[in-house]
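re: ur question from yesterday

yeah so i grabbed the chain u mentioned. its 238 aa long if i counted rite. heres the sequnce exactly as i have it in my notes:
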Amino acid sequence: MSNADIQRRNFLKTTLGAAAVAIAPGMLLFEAAQAKSDGADSKVRWGMLIDTALCKEGCNDCVNACSRENGWKNNNLPTDPQWMRKINIKDISSGREISLPMMCQHCAHPPCVDVCPTAASFKRADGIVLVDKHRCIGCRYCMMACPYKARSFVHEPLHDQNPDVPRGKGTVESCTLCVHRIDQGQQPACTEACTNQAILFGNLNDPESAIAKKILSVASVQVRADLQLNPGIRYQGL
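ran it thru and got these structure tokens back, copy pasting raw so excuse formatting
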């Protein structure tokens, strides 16, 4: 084994050891990450259908709910988290304008997972794409690989965190579909907070689910379908 290999192995050991910090009484960071993989069912594919006709420009209820639930703040700075953001799209030919939320698309074939050198980026059996904080070394390869600009890097120390949503300085983060809520049988915070009912959440693999029936009955698209990533987030009216 070369000196470079030995140094890299020692670095990873140190990183993993330093990441085993308490985020709540009796809970460690790596334990919280592991809990997010346990119990995921491969028969399930969680996803969303977002109706752009119901998503109103200037409405940020979903973004604000995501911020409150997951403990991140938007200060209008380039380094702000990108868990969820509203973007406005205008068709130059027709002048039609659309407002829609953009976040991690929870791809079936996520490029962020492919480029991660430590397996910190991973996809659960139920399709939710996550970052294991105790494995993340902050290289940010996944941020460069994501075509949706849905990932961000934590630059500053964090305080007063939600123990169900462990975050950490020097790691990458993104939308988790509120996995901690899903595992308790709840809806993601953005879905619950949308007063216009523009976000429909559910099991894409269940033909009897409301989202599966809706996708069969209306035209919907995947953002950057040309990349063949098969996102779990679909948009109606885009």
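noticed a couple things. The mean pLDDT is 86. also The first strand starts at residue 22 and ends at 24.
anyway ttyl
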